[in-house]
């Protein structure tokens, strides 16, 4: 190196360490603008939505024997279901109902995927109703997109205010009706003009209304995608024979736009024209052409719109359709899908469901019209009467579970010369009454030596509907 080059100063810039990139754990939310669609499955969705809301809103107004036909009376701990009254002691029926609901969902999911989510789930139903309101006030997809891109103006404020007012009003009516399942809805209606609800009624009306508005209007598909556990564990119940919404890639690929009348095969294209209408109608914003995804709720809107597009381009329907993974792969023809219902998983779930339902129904049909509970007086286990007899005191809880008056007589057995003393020879129990009756049981000392002795209380009905109930207890000797 020459002396001149050695004299040239060399400036060394320090190397700055590369800053680490921050990766968000949460996907940025993008508002989805589902396009309205008509078709066979859209009509079924409307039918299911109307049916579920008719049951929800109309049932509390039905009357039965002078009271609300269906009422979950938490204060008095009675559940009324038309002529049936469920008491806290009947908790087994609630357990049976929950088991039947769970296994019913398992059976349906194994057979037909997430049809419950797409047609009857409250989140889907209320979200769809909110979309109806939005579509009615703001217009279809393009109109809503255009409106949201505009700056705030008097027109936009009026439209948005009208939409939000209707949604809030619907949410409040929903909350009011829900409370009407637990507090007689006619009493709530009478209190409405003065707003003289109880504190708990007021809380639950606004609580449920608030969450209806939040989940169905604000969060919408995010509930299904991120909050609902069903979307996460559904894959456990899916198999290759489960009926799902699928895109036929063999028919559709390679996708691409083409002019009307173009021979797709000659152009090297599949039947999918890549119009993206299946994405525009999807309420959760997915592309069904990417395959089965946990976000898909099985609403079949993509099937309706794709069939409509296929009709316009002159191709056969069914590019997107209900089918099974095995049928789509050619393992068996789609005509054989029904025969796959006999597979072990479906049979097992169905048998368990049938067993639970049959057991609950048989138990209900054999349920005694009276519930009896024997409570021993533990303050004084045994005492001696003036005539030398041993005496134990008991409280007998009698619950009339029917809508009819019951006339009853009490007796006791189990020891020689044992007898029961009560204030009344005959007890009249009004419909659905719950009474505590105090009785005394006496026995000679020679019949009840020191220790505990098994006895049985008998409750016999007096009247046409004769029945007899026996309850075991114990008598303490000297």
From TrEMBL:
Transmembrane segments: 44-64, 91-111, 165-185, 197-216, 346-366
Entry's Gene Ontology molecular function annotations: 4 iron, 4 sulfur cluster binding; metal ion binding
Entry-linked Pfam families: Fer4_18, Fer4_5, FixG_C
InterPro entries attached to this UniProt entry: 4Fe4S_Fe-S-bd, 4Fe4S_Fe_S_CS, Cyt_c_oxidase_cbb3_FixG, Electron_Trans/Redox, FixG_C, Helical_ferredxn, Ig-like_fold
SUPFAM superfamilies reported for this sequence: 4Fe-4S ferredoxins
Keywords on record: 4Fe-4S, Electron transport, Iron, Iron-sulfur, Membrane, Metal-binding, Transmembrane, Transmembrane helix, Transport
PROSITE patterns, per database record: 4FE4S_FER_1, 4FE4S_FER_2
One Gene Ontology cellular component annotation held by this UniProt entry: plasma membrane
Annotated 4Fe-4S ferredoxin-type domain residues: 263-291
PANTHER family membership: FERREDOXIN-TYPE PROTEIN NAPH
Name by which UniProt lists this protein: Cytochrome c oxidase accessory protein CcoG
């Amino acid at each position: 190196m020459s002396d001149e080059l050695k004299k040239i100063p060399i400036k060394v810039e320090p190397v700055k360490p590369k800053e680490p990139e921050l990766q968000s754990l949460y996907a940025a939310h993008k508002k989805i603008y589902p396009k309205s669609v008509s078709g066979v499955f859209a009509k079924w969705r409307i039918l299911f939505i109307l049916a579920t809301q008719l049951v929800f809103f109309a049932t509390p107004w039905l009357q039965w024997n002078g009271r609300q036909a269906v009422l979950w009376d938490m204060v008095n701990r009675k559940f009324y279901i038309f002529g049936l009254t469920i008491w806290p002691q009947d908790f087994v029926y609630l357990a049976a109902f929950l088991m039947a609901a769970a296994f019913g969902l398992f059976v349906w999911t194994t057979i037909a995927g997430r049809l419950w989510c797409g047609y009857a789930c409250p989140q889907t139903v209320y979200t769809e109703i909110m979309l109806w309101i939005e579509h009615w006030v703001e217009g279809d997809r393009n109109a809503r997109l255009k409106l949201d891109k505009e700056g705030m103006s008097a027109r936009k404020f009026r439209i948005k205010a009208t939409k939000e007012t209707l949604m809030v009003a619907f949410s409040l009516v929903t909350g009011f009706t829900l409370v009407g399942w637990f507090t007689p809805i006619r009493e709530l209606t009478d209190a409405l003009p003065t707003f003289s609800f109880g504190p708990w009624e007021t809380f639950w009306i606004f609580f449920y209304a608030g969450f209806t508005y939040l989940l169905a209007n604000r969060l919408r598909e995010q509930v299904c995608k991120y909050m609902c556990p069903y979307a996460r564990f559904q894959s456990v119940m899916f198999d290759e024979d489960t009926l799902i919404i699928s895109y036929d890639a063999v028919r559709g690929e390679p996708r691409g736009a083409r002019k009307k009348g173009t021979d797709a095969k000659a152009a090297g294209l599949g039947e999918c024209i890549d119009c993206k209408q299946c994405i525009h109608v999807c309420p959760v914003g997915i592309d069904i052409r990417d395959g089965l995804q946990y976000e898909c709720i099985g609403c079949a809107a993509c099937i309706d719109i794709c069939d409509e597009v296929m009709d316009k381009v002159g191709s056969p329907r069914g590019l997107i359709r209900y089918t099974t993974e095995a049928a789509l792969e050619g393992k068996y023809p789609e005509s054989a899908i029904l025969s796959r219902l006999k597979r072990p998983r479906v049979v097992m779930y169905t048998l368990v469901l049938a067993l639970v339902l049959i057991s609950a129904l048989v138990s209900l049909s054999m349920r005694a019209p009276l519930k009896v509970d024997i409570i021993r007086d533990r303050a004084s286990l045994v005492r001696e009467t003036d005539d030398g007899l041993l005496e134990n005191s008991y409280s007998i809880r009698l619950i009339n579970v029917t809508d009819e008056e019951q006339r009853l007589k009490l007796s006791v057995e189990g020891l020689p010369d044992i007898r029961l003393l009560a204030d009344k020879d005959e007890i009249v129990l009004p419909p659905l009454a719950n009474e505590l009756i105090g009785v005394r049981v006496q026995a000679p000392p020679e019949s009840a030596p020191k220790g505990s002795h098994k006895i049985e209380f008998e409750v016999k009905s007096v009247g046409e509907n004769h029945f007899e109930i026996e309850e075991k207890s114990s008598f303490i000797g000297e």
